[in-house]
Amino acid sequence: MHDPDAFDMVYDPVRQRHVAATPEEEVRQRLLSWLMSEWRIPAGLIAVEKAIAVHGAQRRPDIVVHDRKGKPWMVIECKAPGVKLTQSAADQVAVYNRSLRAPFLLMSNGHVHLGFELDHVTGRLVALSELPAYPSNQ
Predict the structure, then answer these.
(1) Which long-range contacts link 85-93 to residues 24+ away (Cβ below 8 Å)?
(2) How many domains does the chain have?
(3) Domain holding 28: CATH number?
(4) What is the percentage of the chain residues whose pLDDT exceeds 90?
């Protein structure tokens, strides 16, 4: 007997398992593919929906990219294609980054990509006109 839900799954190469192919997940998978193919970031340096502690609560950032030393380098928040990237989404990724302290943040709905750099002096996010290069020698 055929399982109708089998057609609603997508394979995640980072988590190494099939996950539900929601609109947000499809954005996440396109970003993961881009990170691994264009930036050549090894899957082992990418965490997907891995639990972190934020103010005593468990949170799950969509994607955390680590540098070659294993330190968080970029936190990525994915939204479904029809979802606008609002201040609420920026606040969400910033909350995740309070404990991760990554220098870069990215929000994407698959159509619009907004990048930010954390100013470690002021603690404020500064909008980027283009994404930074992944550090190849760290």
Answers:
(1) 85/109, 85/112, 85/114, 90/114, 90/116, 90/125, 93/61
(2) 1
(3) 3.90.1570.30
(4) 70
